[in-house]
């Protein structure tokens, strides 16, 4: 079974937000940790707090094309337009885009040019959004059906704990009716209220699986903010969820993600 992490961050700067406790986190460090955990590949979402992270992502993917792929980003300022998408997709290892959108640009229509560009190119776009914006994500997905969206971390913030962290899940699971929306079951241990195997999260994961299915729910870690090991993040899915087996397990642990982002 090929195991692919749906979201990590690589960067070389010495600073990071407080919830990312490992800084820097280089490709060499990630490869060492991935080998120890049995993780074959990882999707790098370049750190938005390090201005050099995009260039570093390209270099990491160029040097290790069988281990890293990238969902990159660029500033969504007044000068941004669809030409940036083609420019970005021309870089080594770049399979799509990913943005953190915590303001009204998601709801105002200001980014319609971006969704249109992604739709025309049929590329994946990762999103981290506020829970109240989930209905707007549904509307965008409906208008641009060839764009494939990936919702980060079950739309749960880095400091939220269960049960409060699950308050918005009905709105998240309602997105499952849009066939071009998938979810990343990433950073799940961070929302747990107990130690490994993080049983407090298992019902949430089953509900997510029932809503989106094995082909649209992707395992991952966001490893630089995990307080457990990468191997524990793997085995909580592979060994501790009795309902996740066989072909479904293979899809959740990597095959489904590879299909979604077109990573051969």
UniProtKB/TrEMBL annotation:
Regions crossing the membrane: none
UniProt-listed SUPFAM superfamilies: Metallo-dependent hydrolases
Residue ranges occupied by any Amidohydrolase-related domain in the UniProt entry: 4-222
Pfam families: Amidohydro_2
Molecular-function GO terms, alphabetical: hydrolase activity
Gene3D superfamilies: Metal-dependent hydrolases
Similarity comment text for this entry: Belongs to the metallo-dependent hydrolases superfamily.
Protein name, as recorded: Amidohydrolase-related domain-containing protein
